Amino acid sequence: MAKVCENGAEDCTDARQSPRGINSDRNELWARTATELAAAYQAGETSPEHVLEAVLTRFDTVNPTLNAIVTLDRDGARAAARQAGIRLAAGKSLGLLDGVPVTVKDNLFVGGLRATWGSRLFKNFVADLDDAPIAALRAAGAIILGKTNTPEFAASGYTNNLLFGPTGNPWSPGLSPGGSSGGAAAAVAAGLGPLAIGTDAGGSIRRPAAHTGIAALKPGIGRVPRRGGFPQLNQDLQVIGTMARSVADLKAAFAIMASPSSRAGRPIHALRVGVIYSIGGAPIEPSVENAFVSACRVLKELGHNMESIDAPWLPTEVNELFFELTSVGTARVLAERPAWRDEVTPSIRDAAEAGAARLATDYLTTLDRLAAFREYVRDALGPYDVVATPAASAVAWPKSDPYPRKIAGYEAGPRDAAAFSTAINLAGLPAIVVPAPVKAGELPAGLQLIGRMGSEELLLDLAETFETAQPWPQLAPL
């Protein structure tokens, strides 16, 4: 595999100056980032009401093509925008996200809105209360625009379900944004709100961010408290995180949603960065590899010490653990639902049947293996301040397919594109994804930066310096 370009090493084509360009609609209100909107509100240049109407017009224009937002709360959002406008006019802003439109993945609870979990089993379910992070955002003045599409039970790496159908990628609507936070990623990249709240149990925030050219933060286990909501399918692997078009927006949302960390405020100069180029010989798309090499070069030029290391996990072990956890969790959800077999997708049915057949002792053995895996990976990566990997092995693929059928010309399986992501959930570690520099005509690819427990602020600061050195187009050319 290629390494960081130095002294004439291979793959040295400079892809850092992205030829894709900034979208010509960049100055439209719907195209502003959350922090840009906050500044415009403070300067009296616009109001939450005007911004919301611009986003709603954008929704009417592009969502019929993308199918990113599946439940829109026009009335509720307009009422929230009016209240935000009154606060701002009175000089009583609640903070950076006051009056900023936000979408929420459809596996999370927003009080008063349906939460379908992408399943016909929950098509008429309406949540009574907000999930804890959503309540925190609402208390900070964020405007809840609506719910974004997700595969059934948020359990697939692409976004399609029997209720709403597939979601398209704003870079090419015939392609998938990935999943399971595919609707959230597509919404942000298309200008349907600058922020989206999603979940990540195996790469569900990070991979869609990579496929749509945006930034995303997956917190480590425990940093974003969660209460209420649907039951977890995979022990504690699934965390609630944020997707945005700028790192500053990720910072603003995380500060509201997260609990404090003793690691906050650590300097980011001259970090020791472990670089993982490949996982057990698994294929990686050449454009992804080249983008990753270019991204690592940027980090090196920023003064960080880049060291090539081997991945301390194998895809087979990761995939087995993940399926064992998820299948039992799926069986638990469906055990109380009569006639569920006729209402769910074949993949959910197969997982539930496999989970129901497992003994309690088998599941406890799986938890023991998870604990051992967690300790081993954390110890192996512990000497490094940050570990860098590609966010996904593949670029976006046709939305009719549940996963890329080929990667780098090789036949691919359902979990091959997740070779760099799911192990990080099993280890419980935080990770951030930002767009990596790609060449003209290539689809987006992502740089993943993995930190130690409690190091989310360090990752955010590092990602922000990368963003400054390597700006990316903030909007897809839809």
What is the number of E strands? 13
Structurally, how many domains make up the residues?
Answer: 1
Work out the radius of gyration: 21 Å
> What would CATH call the architecture?
Alpha-Beta Complex
**Could you report the average pLDDT, rounded to the nearest whole number?**
93
Strand order of the largest sheet: 1-3-2-4-6-5-12-13-9-7-8
The SSE order reads: HHEHEHEHEHEEHEHEHHHEEEHEEH
Q: What do we call the CATH homologous superfamily?
A: Amidase signature (AS) domain
Shape: globular
Note down, in words, how this protein is organized.
- 35% of the residues lie in helices and 13% in strands.
- By secondary structure, the protein is of the alpha/beta class.
- The chain has one domain (29-316, 370-469): Amidase signature (AS) domain (Amidase signature (AS) enzymes, Alpha-Beta Complex), CATH 3.90.1300.10.
- The strands form 2 sheets. The protein has an 11-stranded mixed β-sheet with strand order 1-3-2-4-6-5-12-13-9-7-8, with helices on both faces. A two-stranded antiparallel sheet has the order 10-11.
- It is globular and about 60 Å long.
- The protein starts with 33 loop residues before the first helix and ends in a 9-residue tail after the last helix.
Helix-strand blueprint:
Layout: H1 34-42, H2 48-66, E1 69-72, H3 74-89, E2 101-105, H4 132-139, E3 143-148, H5 182-190, E4 195-200, H6 206-212, E5 215-218, E6 239-244, H7 247-257, E7 272-275, H8 286-301, E8 305-308, H9 315-334, H10 346-356, H11 360-381, E9 386-390, E10 406-407, E11 410-411, H12 422-427, E12 431-436, E13 445-451, H13 456-469
Helix pairs in contact: 2-3, 5-6, 7-13, 9-10, 9-11
